[in-house]
């Protein structure tokens, strides 16, 4: 009996040690709610990135990668609690997420408390790697300033008058603040700002205030819409006929489902984080081919970002030689790695991933379900002077 018990104990310990040898990652993100499409893309891309970077083994140095999913339901209090659970109860090596900037801001202090890495993707607000940042935070996604500087390049011009419409939370507020700063010295100026609730579907009042503020101005007049999720503000503002006041609408890039609405705006210029036909590299070729084969569609906006994150995780652990937090921080600061968008680099000062953006012009093709953002110019890391905001 003693021998049997001892053998059982050894077996149990062996299994426990094997489990402890796994590289465990928590993906804490809004699987349900208004950003569900963003979340699915992000997770699909993450798993494809881990697969690509490990050559299909899903192992690093013989240790299996295990990904635990946790649904924040886009609630900040859930994000905080679930990240605490991941670090404390699940003892994950690192975490990734979330979708919402508001949720991300609630999660940042948890990473500092547990002294564990949180890789932020795809939440965008500048404050994540700005005033609310801590040394355990890295972001593979773009930030509001990257969106804003790229959009300013696409929209600005001497004497251009711009009004803005954005959601009234961190993503919208930070985005417009960065856009305003990016326009300095370009000859363009913001003449009116509107912020509305994230779930707004009726834009009549906001549109009327914008048009009243702009209708008597001279020169080029544009409304920049910064929006995430549903509501279709571009289409509803366009239905109010801004052209009668000489006003054009403009916005940045978006997921394929949203790009269907851009067919109303042939010739519109803006900046986009990713569109599957724009990058030219082997990583993107693999992503496009595999995504089409597996899902019957091209990879989308956040799929590429998820893949970027998965590759970053593998490269960081390989470079660090372990999942020790301090070793990972040392490895990741200044780390460069290849992604579907080309080479990216974690800036040492704030751990923001520096990356290309794409200046586009909308082309409408009757044979394509969505509007096509044709490349005007790739805006490289050197073209995008992104402020450091955590100092």
UniProtKB/TrEMBL annotation:
<protein>
    <submittedName>
        <fullName>Branched-chain amino acid transport system substrate-binding protein</fullName>
    </submittedName>
</protein>
<keyword id="KW-0732">Signal</keyword>
<dbReference type="InterPro" id="IPR051010">
    <property type="entry name" value="BCAA_transport"/>
</dbReference>
<dbReference type="Pfam" id="PF13458">
    <property type="entry name" value="Peripla_BP_6"/>
</dbReference>
<dbReference type="GO" id="GO:0006865">
    <property type="term" value="P:amino acid transport"/>
</dbReference>
<keyword id="KW-0813">Transport</keyword>
<dbReference type="InterPro" id="IPR028081">
    <property type="entry name" value="Leu-bd"/>
</dbReference>
<keyword id="KW-0029">Amino-acid transport</keyword>
<feature type="domain" description="Leucine-binding protein">
    <location>
        <begin position="23"/>
        <end position="363"/>
    </location>
</feature>
<dbReference type="InterPro" id="IPR028082">
    <property type="entry name" value="Peripla_BP_I"/>
</dbReference>
<feature type="signal peptide">
    <location>
        <begin position="1"/>
        <end position="21"/>
    </location>
</feature>
<comment type="similarity">
    <text>Belongs to the leucine-binding protein family.</text>
</comment>
């Amino acid at each position: 009996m003693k021998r049997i018990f001892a053998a059982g104990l050894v077996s149990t310990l062996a299994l426990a040690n094997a489990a402890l040898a796994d590289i465990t990652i928590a993906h804490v993100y809004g699987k349900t709610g208004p950003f569900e499409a963003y979340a699915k893309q992000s997770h699909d891309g993450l798993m494809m990135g881990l697969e690509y970077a490990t050559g299909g083994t899903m192992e690093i140095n013989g240790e299996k990668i295990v990904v635990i999913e946790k649904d924040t339901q886009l609630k900040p209090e859930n994000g905080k609690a679930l990240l605490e659970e991941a670090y404390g109860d699940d003892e994950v090596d690192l975490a990734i997420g979330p979708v919402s900037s508001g949720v991300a801001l609630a999660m940042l202090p948890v990473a500092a408390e547990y002294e564990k890495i949180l890789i932020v993707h795809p939440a965008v607000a500048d404050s994540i790697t700005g005033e609310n940042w801590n040394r355990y935070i890295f972001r593979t996604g773009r930030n509001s300033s990257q969106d804003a500087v790229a959009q300013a390049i696409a929209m600005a011009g001497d004497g251009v008058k711009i009004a803005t419409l954005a959601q009234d939370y961190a993503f919208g507020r930070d985005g417009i603040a960065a856009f305003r700063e990016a326009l300095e010295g370009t000859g363009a100026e913001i003449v009116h700002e509107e912020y509305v609730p994230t779930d707004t579907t009726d834009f009549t009042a906001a549109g009327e205030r914008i048009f009243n503020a702009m209708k008597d101005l001279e020169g080029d007049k544009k409304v920049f819409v910064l929006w995430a999720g549903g509501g279709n503000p571009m289409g509803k503002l366009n239905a109010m006929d801004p052209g009668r006041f000489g006003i054009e609408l403009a916005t940045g890039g978006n997921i394929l489902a949203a790009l269907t609405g851009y067919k109303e705006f042939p010739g519109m210029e803006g900046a986009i984080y990713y569109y599957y036909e724009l990058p030219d590299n082997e990583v993107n070729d693999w992503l496009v081919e595999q995504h089409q084969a597996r899902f019957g569609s091209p990879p989308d906006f956040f799929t590429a970002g998820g893949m970027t994150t998965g590759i970053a995780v593998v490269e960081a652990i390989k470079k660090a030689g372990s999942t020790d937090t301090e070793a990972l921080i040392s490895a990741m600061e200044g780390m460069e790695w290849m992604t579907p968008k080309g080479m990216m680099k974690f800036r040492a000062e704030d751990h923001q991933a520096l990356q290309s953006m794409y200046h586009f012009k909308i082309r409408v093709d009757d044979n394509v379900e969505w509007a096509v953002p044709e490349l005007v110019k790739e805006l490289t890391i050197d073209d995008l002077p992104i402020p450091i905001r955590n100092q």
